[in-house]
Specification:
Length: 343
């Protein structure tokens, strides 16, 4: 049998309104009354009807998260973190996969699910400023990733240049000097690949190491196969680095496979650093040193930003300003640069 607010009120000996105030976390409830009601809730096993609560506010209780690649472990792990963060705000998350297509990103941001969702968290790759400027849908939206738009949307991204510099600095501190960068792009200067390339250049220059563009390998994608192709291309050109900074962990994993096939040892011959700290990076034959973006903080900030905008819209105070929110990152040192610990 479903426990109602009335049941909780009778058990606690208070009014239904008081129980509702506690359930909705209204601040003016005294600590003693909150404890009394919460005890009754726990004893009866009461669970709030979230659907009814959202309907009273004119909402669906659903937010959307749209990412380029659900098959990419980074986005899969980020999606899990967003789902957990949204649950704390009583929201369910609907996942959309854009494939990094501009047309699909336009479709998502223009509100083709506007009757289903209350808000959108979007990680765009190809979306242009004019696409967002032409947006007619008024559903609140928060942007993730390295694309920056001079428009009133909160934007959440780590400092990719600083992160790349930390990765390269680690390799330089280990005495490596011929550090390749795998996964550069020629076509989109605003991509994270461009920022990480800039970080690679900046740290080499800061430490007086000559920048050799022969050590930079461009790729069309950023999966394991792309990393393998990039490493094979580099070695086939006669260029043998003593370290690799890869655009992401998947590129690093593909590159290390080619190193193994060519008889090169990691890290004795070539040290490797990836980016993203996906679960796979910890469990290879050689665990991967990597840059770990704070995915939990990214998710929390995204959901909190969206929830804040939803609350302001509910009060009629629609936000017209944007915020740049920058979660942290950490360099996680593992065997691909430090080698195995003695048994």
């Amino acid at each position: 049998m479903r426990v109602s607010l009335k049941d909780v009120a009778e058990r606690a000996g208070v009014s239904i309104k008081t129980v509702s105030n506690v359930v909705n976390n209204y601040p003016h409830v005294t600590p003693a009354m909150r404890t009394r009601v919460q005890q009754a809730i726990d004893e009866l096993g009461y669970r709030p009807n979230l659907t009814a609560r959202h309907l009273r506010k004119g909402r669906t209780g659903i937010i959307a998260l749209a990412v380029p690649e659900l098959g990419n472990p980074y986005f899969a792990e980020l999606a899990g973190a967003v789902i957990d963060a949204a649950a704390e705000h009583d929201y369910t998350v609907l996942l959309d996969h854009t494939g990094g297509s501009r047309e699909q990103e336009i479709l998502v941001c223009q509100g083709f699910r506007s009757r289903v969702i209350d808000g959108l968290i979007l990680s765009p790759l190809e979306l242009e400023t004019e696409d967002l400027a032409a947006r007619a849908d008024d559903i609140p939206m928060v942007l993730l990733g390295e694309r920056r738009y001079d428009l009133p949307y909160d934007h959440i991204a780590i400092d990719n240049i600083a992160a790349a510099r930390a990765a390269v600095r680690h390799l330089l501190d280990l005495g490596r000097r011929r550090i390749a960068f795998l996964g550069a792009r020629q076509d989109r200067v605003h991509q994270p690949a461009h920022l990480r390339h800039l970080g690679w250049q900046a740290e080499l220059a800061a430490q007086g190491v000559p920048i050799d563009e022969a050590l930079v390998v461009h790729s069309r994608g950023w999966g394991r196969e792309d990393g393998a192709l990039a490493m094979a291309h580099l070695l086939d050109s006669g260029v043998v680095p003593d370290a690799v900074f890869a655009y992401n962990d998947l590129v690093a994993v593909g590159a290390m496979r080619v190193m193994y096939e060519r008889g090169l040892r990691v890290p004795e011959d070539i040290a490797v650093v990836g980016f993203d700290d996906v679960t796979e990076s910890r469990f290879g034959a050689v665990s991967l040193t990597t840059i770990a973006p704070d995915k939990q903080a990214i998710a929390r900030l995204a959901v909190e930003s969206l929830a804040s905008r939803l609350d302001r819209d509910q009060d009629g105070a629609v936000a017209r300003t944007s915020r740049e929110l920058q979660p942290g990152f950490a360099l996680v040192e593992r065997e691909s640069t430090l080698g195995r610990k003695p048994a």
